[in-house]
Amino acid sequence: MKTTDERKKALLESFKNGLIVSCQVQKDDPIYTEDIVVKMAEAAKWAGAVGIRANSPEQIKAIKEKVDLPMIGLWKIWHEDTDVFITPTLEAAKAVWEAGAEIIALDCTKQITHEKTIAWDLLDIVKKEIPEAIIFADVSSYEEAAHAIAHGADIVAPTLYGYTKETAHIEGADYRLFAKMCRDFKDDVYMMMEGHLYTPEDAMKCIYLGAHAVVVGSAITRPHLTAKRFVDLLGGYQDNWREAEKAKH
């Protein structure tokens, strides 16, 4: 069931039909500078974005000091023995919250974490320990979406479609899967689309299919990956740009 908390509801409703821009950078990215994520967020606000998604307590805090938009926060922590990297522990979730994010994004897949737990089990723990937070469940499948909703996620998106072993082969968004999620879950959760959206037309298609809002990152804020997509195609698909997109940092 969708939240009845008036504060949370007001924030979530403010996203309706809007664009949330994912403003993320890693230190080994060619565009990295200390203030680049702040500039990304300022540009997103200027353009009319309704929210920001950002990675790491440091970058979340820097953006919140300069840009007054709701923040979806996460902390990417990579380990070689798992594909779970989005806010994988309670400590990471607390750090994201303390940095100023109103919304905490969690990996809510059924993958095994570095700590040998099931990723989606963290949802219940974070809801108990940080009840004031809005929870954004990043999933890769219909089953994981249903599980996240049953355990009280406020937002669900197929962010990790393409980032799990079962979906690693995909190249683009699965609009049929997303439409089914919207039809079946629209009364119980705020469905958002994130992942594999590269044009305004892609984003509008998702709104038409039932998305409450869309999150777009690489196509807007990672020009090196946009350029690499062009090079990949022009080179006859000899150098897969998605390997760079999914690289551990």
UniProtKB/TrEMBL annotation:
<dbReference type="GO" id="GO:0047465">
    <property type="term" value="F:N-acylglucosamine-6-phosphate 2-epimerase activity"/>
</dbReference>
<dbReference type="GO" id="GO:0005829">
    <property type="term" value="C:cytosol"/>
</dbReference>
<dbReference type="InterPro" id="IPR007260">
    <property type="entry name" value="NanE"/>
</dbReference>
<dbReference type="InterPro" id="IPR013785">
    <property type="entry name" value="Aldolase_TIM"/>
</dbReference>
<protein>
    <recommendedName>
        <fullName>N-acylglucosamine-6-phosphate 2-epimerase</fullName>
        <ecNumber>5.1.3.9</ecNumber>
    </recommendedName>
</protein>
<dbReference type="Pfam" id="PF04131">
    <property type="entry name" value="NanE"/>
</dbReference>
<keyword id="KW-0119">Carbohydrate metabolism</keyword>
<keyword id="KW-0413">Isomerase</keyword>
<comment type="pathway">
    <text>Amino-sugar metabolism; N-acetylneuraminate degradation; D-fructose 6-phosphate from N-acetylneuraminate: step 3/5.</text>
</comment>
<dbReference type="GO" id="GO:0006053">
    <property type="term" value="P:N-acetylmannosamine catabolic process"/>
</dbReference>
<dbReference type="GO" id="GO:0019262">
    <property type="term" value="P:N-acetylneuraminate catabolic process"/>
</dbReference>
<comment type="function">
    <text>Converts N-acetylmannosamine-6-phosphate (ManNAc-6-P) to N-acetylglucosamine-6-phosphate (GlcNAc-6-P).</text>
</comment>
<comment type="similarity">
    <text>Belongs to the NanE family.</text>
</comment>
<dbReference type="InterPro" id="IPR011060">
    <property type="entry name" value="RibuloseP-bd_barrel"/>
</dbReference>
